Inverse folding.
């Protein structure tokens, strides 16, 4: 601050009282966060308005000052939203940019806003509010995605496809069952964001720099005004932990892993060699040189997003590790990582939802593939156990010989004759052919959570109820 007695210098207008000179240009560059933390403007203004109202209610500032502050902050908000706010790097961050502008607009009362708080609890509050919103966005995005997967599952609850282990044909499953596997994964992701949101929903505001404050503030009032469940119970913890951001990033990373696996399957299934699915024009791209190409770019990019989301997670864990209590400036490095991871996750969720909604599964192709590769060999072995009384290990061996025979003849298991079968084990009867078809195979998997269409439909109904 300058007046007639203190000559104007280049020291910081907000904290430069004891400084004779301003910072080096490089110091300003490394210190400033306004380039990215301007994204917190709405949360910052919301927190400050709640703080000002509380200060007045507690008699710490006058009601007319609080009114001027609260009104002035709305003017700042509209300036930022209109895109004509004079952001200044010299003012470091969003908190000081907003306060300095408030002073330009309302004058002296602006200086009373920062009573009983510090930028340390202010930034912790703003960032919590922002991450809380992102949890809500992730929850909404996952609800939509689950809806799209459920719709696919409903259409193809009894469409047979090969189930894979080691990406080798294993046993027939249904398209609905495969889609519902992702519904389960995305459902757990959703509950992880709900859990994290619940845990982070406590207010740091009023923890002040680190030790609390001597002003008679009401932290319960500001917590309620900001829709927090309660104030955080320890001021040192309130200003210095970022575990809420780490939880958000961890949940986002797990969700991105799930997205990458579905994306990878869509890439494989849409290839000319599989053709299990076709993507609509809206979700494919062409090649500038190969006219026949229809590339699954969106799926590939979703598959890749885990790279940056997990990268952000590792980066913030690394920043936080070993920091002594309470606040250190290291923690300013929390925001860009979380911003980027959140943007990437929301985009990936929206793209996957769109792609899945527009996707056509190819029932005939999938069924033909399910019938190849001796996919019902396990059903044959199970028949030998059930109907011929063989121990499973022996049944496995007999079935292996029959697979070898079919392979030598260049046919599938159902194409062997009864005589072929009986030459390997005389106890086999015509009844065995009932279990060699893929439809019978999936229908027989009636164990809870199994691939039988009845089981799949029961799970679809359960999820429809849940949502
Ligand atoms: N821009 C800072 C951050 O993001 C705000 C808190 C600064 N506090 C301080 N004591 N320098 O963490």
């Amino acid at each position: 601050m300058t007046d007639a007695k203190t000559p104007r210098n280049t020291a910081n207008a907000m904290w430069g009282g004891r400084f004779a000179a301003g910072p080096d240009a490089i110091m300003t560059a490394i210190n400033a966060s306004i380039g990215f933390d301007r994204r917190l403007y709405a949360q910052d203004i919301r927190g400050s308005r709640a703080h000002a109202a509380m200060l007045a209610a507690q008699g710490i500032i006058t009601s007319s000052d609080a009114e001027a502050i609260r009104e002035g902050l709305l003017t700042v908000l509209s300036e930022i939203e209109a895109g004509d706010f004079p952001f200044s790097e010299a003012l470091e961050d969003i908190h000081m940019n907003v306060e300095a502008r408030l002073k330009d607009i309302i004058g002296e009362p602006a200086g009373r806003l920062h009573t009983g708080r510090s930028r340390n609890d202010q930034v912790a509050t703003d960032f919590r509010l922002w991450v809380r919103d992102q949890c809500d966005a992730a929850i909404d995005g996952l609800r939509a995605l689950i809806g799209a997967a459920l719709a696919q599952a409903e259409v193809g609850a009894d469409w047979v496809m090969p189930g894979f282990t080691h990406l080798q044909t294993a046993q027939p499953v249904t398209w609905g069952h495969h889609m519902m596997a992702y519904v389960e994964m995305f459902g757990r992701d959703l509950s992880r964001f709900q859990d994290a949101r619940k845990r982070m929903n406590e207010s740091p505001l009023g923890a002040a720099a680190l030790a609390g404050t001597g002003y008679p503030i009401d932290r319960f009032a500001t917590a309620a005004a900001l829709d927090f469940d309660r104030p955080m119970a320890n001021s040192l913890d309130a200003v210095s932990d970022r575990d809420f951001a780490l939880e958000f990033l961890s949940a986002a990373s797990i969700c991105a892993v799930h997205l990458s696996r579905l994306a990878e399957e869509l890439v494989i299934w849409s290839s000319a060699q599989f053709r299990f699915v076709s993507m609509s024009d809206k979700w494919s791209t062409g090649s500038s040189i190969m006219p026949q190409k229809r590339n699954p770019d969106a799926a590939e990019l979703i598959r890749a997003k885990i790279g940056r989301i997990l990268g952000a997670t590792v980066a913030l864990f690394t920043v936080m590790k070993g920091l002594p209590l309470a606040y250190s400036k290291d923690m300013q490095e929390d925001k860009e990582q979380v911003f980027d991871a959140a943007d990437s996750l929301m985009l990936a969720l929206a793209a996957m939802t769109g792609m899945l909604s527009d996707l056509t599964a190819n029932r005939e192709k999938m069924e033909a593939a399910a019938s190849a590769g001796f996919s019902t060999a396990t059903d044959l072995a199970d028949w030998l156990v059930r109907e011929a009384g063989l121990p499973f290990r022996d049944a496995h061996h007999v079935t292996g010989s029959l697979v070898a025979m079919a392979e030598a003849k260049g046919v599938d298991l159902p194409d062997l004759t009864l005589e072929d079968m009986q030459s390997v084990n005389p106890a086999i009867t015509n009844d065995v052919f009932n279990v060699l078809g893929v439809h019978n195979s999936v229908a027989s998997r009636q164990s809870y959570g199994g691939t039988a269409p009845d089981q799949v439909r029961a799970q679809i109904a359960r999820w429809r109820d849940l949502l």
About this structure: Confidence is low (pLDDT under 50) at residues 1-7. DSSP finds 18 helices and six strands in the chain. Strands lie at 160-165, 168-174, 202-203, 230-231, 277-278, 360-361. The radius of gyration is 31 Å.
